[in-house]
Design a protein that fits this description.
By secondary structure, the chain is mostly helical. The chain has one domain (22-152). Helix content is 78%, strand content 0%. The protein has 6 helices and no strands.
Length: 153
């Protein structure tokens, strides 16, 4: 009984040693959100300068900040599911990330065409599209860092 318990504990410790600590993962994801929101503040400012309606709700920090947070967290969840369930996660993510990025433009184009949010203009819509790219460009490296086993650093 003692030998079996010892073996189980050793296996658990070895398995845990190859994983990124939860606190580090959380820190990396929080930093990704902060950096993405900061860059998107600049994107919103440029979009307003290019003709987006002042006060256009999607270009305000509370709105795009919340969507950035949700996007990073949902992206992380999807990333981890694919890493754990796919035989070739790198290959799958290599085409899935750009496809999801392109699909994220569909609501923006619909907004530009249908103007279902008051104050929607093409400069505002293009700003939103750039924000999607910003989040992807910042989140993907964060996912690579947050998901890297401690033994490979």
């Amino acid at each position: 009984m003692t030998t079996q318990t010892h073996t189980t504990q050793t296996h658990t410790l070895d398995h845990a040693a190859g994983r990124v600590p939860v606190a580090l993962t959380g820190l990396v994801l929080v930093l990704a959100v902060i950096v993405a929101v900061a860059v998107n503040v600049v994107v919103a400012w440029v979009a307003r300068g290019a003709g987006a309606t002042p006060g256009f709700p999607p270009l305000t920090v509370p709105v795009f900040g919340a969507f950035t947070l949700v996007g990073v967290l949902v992206g992380w969840a999807g990333w981890r599911i694919i890493e754990h369930r796919s035989a070739r996660p790198g290959r799958l993510l290599g085409w899935l990330v750009p496809v999801v990025g392109l699909l994220s433009f569909v609501p923006d184009v619909a907004l530009g065409l249908l103007r279902f949010i008051p104050g929607a203009t093409w400069p505002g819509v293009l700003g939103l599209m750039v924000m999607h790219v910003v989040v992807i460009v910042i989140a993907v490296p964060a996912y690579l860092i947050a998901g890297r086993p401690a033994t490979s650093r």
